[in-house]
Structure formats: structure tokens, C-alpha cells
Amino acid sequence: MSSAQYELSPPPSDVISAIRFAPNSSRLLVSSWDKNVYLYDVRAPAAEQLVRKYSLSAPVLDVCFGDDESHAYTASLDWTVRRINLETGEDTVLSTHKAGANCVAYSAKTDLLVSASWDGQLHVHALSKPGQPPAVIQLPAKPFSISVTSDKLVVGMANRLVDIYDLKPLEKLAMQHNAGTPQTVEPLQRRESSMKFMTRAIACMPSELGYASSSIEGRVSVEWFDPSDEAQAKKYAFKCHRETVDGIDVVYPVNALAYHSVHKATFASGGGDGHVALWDGATKRRIRQYQKFPSSIAALAFSPNGRYLAVAYSPGFEDGKEDMAGPVGVAIRELSENETKGKGAK
């Protein structure tokens, strides 16, 4: 099969914040600063790609599916965490932070929805108990990105801190009647990022053995959960999304990371340079880099079957300009059989 690439239509009208595939289909959620959530079917004919648009009251900073395609969950600039019924369009506020809510992630094994906010707190929602207030976890710094495995939550924060939580204790807290009272929970591990600059994105490995993180200074780090000296000796970091312009080295933020669901050592990175690269995390080699997109890469997602790569692009602040004018879109790349396979060691 040869590769094909096409644009979803119509695209959002403002900067894209997140994209997420459904757990078992070709449907894709897209959230935007235009205060909307878009539901697409990436395999539908062009005129039928947009399944539905859901309008909210504030810019939407993150979105995810739950355990199926019937509901979406959002984090918004108006501090709220919401559940959207994708069939009826009805939305319900699950909790309200004390500042903009910037991250949401769903854990299928525990049926927990975790949200993070610039207020420095996590809200852990037990979706099996409707109406139950969330457990509120106080963080040591402002969170920028979160990612989950079946049993762990990874939180990338300011001051280069990374907390790794066991989801089981968080599940117990979320089920208790005193949920809603801020609590300090000791993480399973607290780490300092091996990168010198602010964390931009975090993505857990499908193997659940570790995670990749990226920084605003053109670097990606790959680390393992196992705290043993042997496992920690395997962690590494590398430079990427850099270019030389008129003899000057220009470094871009790495805004997005996504692991392939089938070739589990393969991950994609997207940067402010408008490029998407595929990496073999096992051999530490770049598999390929795609042709430059018309704007900064905002978000990435692989489909559950590994056949599609969704690339969201929209203007960033990389050029130093405050106006955000520029192309906004979501490109879908239909991947060939060997396109994401890792390379053998040198």
C-alpha cells in the first residue's frame, strides 16, 4: 500500500489544542481555541468527514474520549472540565478548577478521568460514581502535560519536575466521600527532567515501560519507569526540530509526541518548525521526516490500528509575532505497511 495524505474539512477556525482518536474506530476529536470541539470520521468522503461540531463557552485546551465513542471530555480556559454526549450534544460540568484547565486524560482500566489545571492541581474523577466530587491533588508546580498507562499517571510540570503516580491509590481517593478536599499525595516517583528547559509534552509508551517527554528547546527524552540503576542507565535524550537559517542555529519547541499503537517503540514528534519526524526508540534512530507543514505542529495522534497519523497544525509564537494569523488544519496520513517500522541497529 502506498501512502496518501489529505486534509480534514472543514478545519477549526482558530489554533488547535489537541487531537484524539476514538479507542476502537477511525473517529477523531479535535479541540480548538475557537471554543469548539470537532468530531471527524477520517475514513469518510470529504463531504462527510465532519460528523458534528460542539460549541462551548470558552477556548477548549484539551479533549479525550472515554471508554467508547459516546462521550468526550474537555478541559477549558473557563476552568471547567466537561463531559459531552456526542450523540445529543449535551454537555455537563464535572468539576471546576481555580484557573484554566489545560489537560484531560482517561484511564480505561480504572475508569478514571484526570484533569490538570494551571491552578497547580489535579482533579481525579471516578466516572463510575456520577455526581461524586473529584479527588483534588495538590501538585508541587504548574502542570503542562499529562499521560496515562493502565496503572500510572505521568505529570510534566514547571521547574522541570515530573511526577509519576500509581492510579490505584488515586482511584481509592476518588471513590471516598471526602473527595473534593485538596490533598497532597506522595507520587510513586518524583523526577527532575533530564532536559534543561521547560517540558512541553509527555507521552507514555504503549508497552507501559516508560515515557517520552519533549522540551521547548528542541529536545526529546526517553525514560523508563523502573527505578533500578540498570533501567535508568538506558534513558537518553537527543536534539531535534532545529535548522540553520542564514548561518544561525534556530531551535524550535517540540510541541507534540505520539507513540505508534502497533510498532510500540516507534513515536512521532512535531515541532514549531512545521516538521513531523518518526523515531525508533529502541535503536535511537530517526525513521523519516515528513515534508514541512504550513504552520507549527500543534498535536499528533496515531489511530488504534496504526494505519493513520493525524497531524494538527496551526500558528505558534515561534516567529516572535503576537498575532496568530496563519494556516490551521488537520492532515491525515494513511500509512504504508512499513512506514512506521523501526530500523535495525547500526
UniProtKB/TrEMBL annotation:
UniProt xrefs under Gene3D superfamilies:
YVTN repeat-like/Quinoprotein amine dehydrogenase
InterPro entries given in the database record: WD40/YVTN_repeat-like_dom_sf, WD40_repeat_dom_sf, WD40_rpt
Query: Please, which domain of life does this record's source organism belong to?
Result: Eukaryota
Give the keywords, sorted: Repeat, WD repeat
**Protein's name according to its UniProt entry:** WD40 repeat-like protein
From which organism does this entry originate?
Answer: Microthyrium microscopicum
Lineage, uppermost ranks = Eukaryota, Fungi, Dikarya, Ascomycota, Pezizomycotina
